[in-house]
C-alpha cells in the first residue's frame, strides 16, 4: 500500500507507528481496566496526553478540519492498529472516528463547534444509538425495523425507545441518536449523560478494546432542541450510509494493523520455539500457516486500498464496502486463528495480545453488518444486474 499514499500520509503513518510501538504497546499490561477488560477513561486520557505531546493525536484530521484522503487514512489507521490500544490512544477508534466523519460531513457550523471540536481534541468520547433489542422487533442489521420514535413538540423533538449494543455509551459525552418520525428516520446530537437516557446494563462481550462496552439503553421522553437535529428530518438512513460505508473500511484498516502485529508475534515464536529437533517454522504444518497469513494480510491490504481509492474518487457504494467488510474480516479471522494455533498454549493465554486480537476480530465479523448480511446484499445486486442484462 506504500505506493498508494502520498508522502504526507507515509510521514504521518511512520510517526504513528513509532508512537504505538514505543509508547502504547507497554500499556497493554496496564491493569486499569473496567469490569469487562476495556481500558478506563483515566488510562485513555493519559495515553491521549502522550499522543498530543508526540503530535499524533487525531492524525487523520488536519489542523484546518479537513481529513486525509482515504488512502492516506488507511496508511495511518493500519499503523494505529498495531496495538489494540493504539486507535484509542491516538483517537482513531470506533465509534468516535466514524462519528467525527459523519458530523464533519453533515453537521452545521454550530454543531461542529459544540460537539465535534471536543471529539477531535480527544477530550470527549461518543456513542451512536441505532441498534435495538431483537425481542421487541427492533433494528439491527435491518435499520428499517427501527422502533424508537421521535415527535416534534414545539421547538423540541421528543424521543422514546430502547437501544442495545451501543458502543461506548457509558462514559460518553456526545451521542448521535437515531429515531423514526412521520417523515422517516432522523438523527440527533445530544449531550451525555442525560437523565432521559438510562443505561440498564452493560453486558460482558467477547471483545474488550472499547471503553464503555456495549450498553443496553432506555430512552424515556428525551427532549432535544430542534437545532440539534443532524441534517434534515427523514434522511437519517442516508446519513447512516455516509457514516457506515467508510466506517466499515476503517474497521478493516485498524484490525489489519492488529493482525499484522499478531503475525509478528507468532512468527517470532515459531522461529524461536524448538520441537522434534528443529524450530517450529521449519515444520511445514507451521511454516505453511505463516505463509498463508502473509497471503491473507496482503490480500486484505489490497482490498482496503482498492476501496479507499474508490472513496477518494467519489463515494464508496454499499457493494464495495460490503465486499471489503466480508473479504477483510474473514481473511483476518483466518490470520488470527492461525496465530493462536501456531503458538499453542501461549496463543490462548494473555501473555501476548494474540488471544485478544482473535477475540476482537471474531466480533468484527458481526458488527457493522455480519458477513451473511453483506453476502445477501451482494446476491441481491447480482440478481438485479442479471435482470437488467435480460431486459
UniProtKB/TrEMBL annotation:
<feature type="domain" description="Acyl-CoA oxidase/dehydrogenase middle">
    <location>
        <begin position="128"/>
        <end position="204"/>
    </location>
</feature>
<feature type="domain" description="Acyl-CoA dehydrogenase/oxidase C-terminal">
    <location>
        <begin position="234"/>
        <end position="381"/>
    </location>
</feature>
<dbReference type="GO" id="GO:0033539">
    <property type="term" value="P:fatty acid beta-oxidation using acyl-CoA dehydrogenase"/>
</dbReference>
<protein>
    <submittedName>
        <fullName>Acyl-CoA dehydrogenase</fullName>
    </submittedName>
</protein>
<dbReference type="Pfam" id="PF02770">
    <property type="entry name" value="Acyl-CoA_dh_M"/>
</dbReference>
<comment type="similarity">
    <text>Belongs to the acyl-CoA dehydrogenase family.</text>
</comment>
<dbReference type="InterPro" id="IPR009075">
    <property type="entry name" value="AcylCo_DH/oxidase_C"/>
</dbReference>
<dbReference type="InterPro" id="IPR009100">
    <property type="entry name" value="AcylCoA_DH/oxidase_NM_dom_sf"/>
</dbReference>
<dbReference type="GO" id="GO:0005737">
    <property type="term" value="C:cytoplasm"/>
</dbReference>
<dbReference type="Pfam" id="PF00441">
    <property type="entry name" value="Acyl-CoA_dh_1"/>
</dbReference>
<dbReference type="GO" id="GO:0003995">
    <property type="term" value="F:acyl-CoA dehydrogenase activity"/>
</dbReference>
<dbReference type="Pfam" id="PF02771">
    <property type="entry name" value="Acyl-CoA_dh_N"/>
</dbReference>
<keyword id="KW-0285">Flavoprotein</keyword>
<dbReference type="InterPro" id="IPR046373">
    <property type="entry name" value="Acyl-CoA_Oxase/DH_mid-dom_sf"/>
</dbReference>
<dbReference type="InterPro" id="IPR006091">
    <property type="entry name" value="Acyl-CoA_Oxase/DH_mid-dom"/>
</dbReference>
<dbReference type="InterPro" id="IPR050741">
    <property type="entry name" value="Acyl-CoA_dehydrogenase"/>
</dbReference>
<comment type="subunit">
    <text>Homodimer.</text>
</comment>
<keyword id="KW-0560">Oxidoreductase</keyword>
<dbReference type="InterPro" id="IPR036250">
    <property type="entry name" value="AcylCo_DH-like_C"/>
</dbReference>
<dbReference type="GO" id="GO:0050660">
    <property type="term" value="F:flavin adenine dinucleotide binding"/>
</dbReference>
<dbReference type="InterPro" id="IPR013786">
    <property type="entry name" value="AcylCoA_DH/ox_N"/>
</dbReference>
<dbReference type="InterPro" id="IPR037069">
    <property type="entry name" value="AcylCoA_DH/ox_N_sf"/>
</dbReference>
<feature type="domain" description="Acyl-CoA dehydrogenase/oxidase N-terminal">
    <location>
        <begin position="11"/>
        <end position="123"/>
    </location>
</feature>
<keyword id="KW-0274">FAD</keyword>
Amino acid at each position: 500500500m506504500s505506493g498508494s499514499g502520498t508522502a504526507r500520509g507515509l510521514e504521518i503513518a511512520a510517526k504513528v507507528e513509532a508512537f504505538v510501538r514505543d509508547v502504547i504497546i507497554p500499556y497493554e499490561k496496564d491493569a486499569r481496566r473496567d469490569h469487562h477488560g476495556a481500558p478506563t477513561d483515566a488510562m485513555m486520557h493519559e495515553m491521549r496526553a502522550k499522543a498530543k505531546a508526540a503530535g499524533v493525536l487525531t492524525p487523520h484530521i488536519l489542523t484546518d478540519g479537513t481529513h486525509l484522503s482515504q488512502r492516506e487514512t488507511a496508511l495511518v489507521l493500519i499503523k494505529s492498529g498495531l496495538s489494540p490500544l493504539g486507535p484509542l490512544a491516538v483517537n482513531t477508534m470506533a465509534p468516535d472516528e466514524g462519528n467525527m466523519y459523519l458530523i464533519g460531513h453533515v453537521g452545521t457550523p454550530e454543531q461542529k463547534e459544540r460537539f465535534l471540536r471536543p471529539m477531535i481534541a480527544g477530550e470527549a468520547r461518543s456513542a451512536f444509538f441505532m441498534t435495538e433489542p431483537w425481542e421487541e422487533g427492533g433494528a439491527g442489521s435491518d435499520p428499517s425495523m427501527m422502533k424508537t420514535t421521535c415527535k416534534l413538540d414545539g421547538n423540541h423533538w421528543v424521543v422514546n425507545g430502547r437501544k442495545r449494543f451501543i458502543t461506548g455509551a457509558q462514559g460518553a459525552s456526545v451521542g448521535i441518536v437515531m429515531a423514526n418520525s412521520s417523515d422517516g428516520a432522523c438523527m440527533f446530537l445530544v449531550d451525555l449523560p442525560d437523565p432521559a437516557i438510562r443505561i440498564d446494563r452493560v453486558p460482558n462481550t467477547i471483545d474488550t478494546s472499547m471503553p464503555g462496552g456495549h450498553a443496553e439503553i432506555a430512552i424515556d421522553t428525551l427532549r432535544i432542541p430542534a437545532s440539534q437535529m443532524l441534517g434534515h428530518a427523514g434522511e437519517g438512513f442516508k446519513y447512516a450510509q455516509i457514516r457506515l460505508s467508510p466506517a466499515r473500511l476503517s474497521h478493516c484498516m485498524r484490525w489489519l494493523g492488529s493482525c499484522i502485529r499478531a503475525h509478528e508475534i507468532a512468527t517470532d515464536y515459531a522461529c524461536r520455539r524448538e520441537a522434534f529437533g528443529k524450530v517450529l517454522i521449519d515444520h511445514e504444518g507451521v511454516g505453511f500457516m505463516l505463509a498463508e497469513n502473509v497471503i491473507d494480510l496482503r490480500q486484505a491490504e489490497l482490498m482496503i486500498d482498492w476501496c479507499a481509492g474508490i472513496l477518494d474518487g467519489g463515494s464508496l457504494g454499499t457493494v464495495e464496502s460490503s465486499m471489503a467488510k466480508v473479504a477483510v474480516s474473514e481473511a483476518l479471522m483466518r490470520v488470527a486463528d492461525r496465530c493462536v494455533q501456531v503458538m499453542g498454549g501461549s496463543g490462548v493465554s494473555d501473555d501476548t495480545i494474540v488471544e485478544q486480537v482473535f477475540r476482537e476480530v471474531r466480533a468484527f465479523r458481526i458488527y457493522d453488518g455480519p458477513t451473511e448480511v453483506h453476502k445477501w446484499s451482494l446476491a441481491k445486486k447480482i440478481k438485479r444486474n442479471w435482470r437488467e442484462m435480460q431486459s
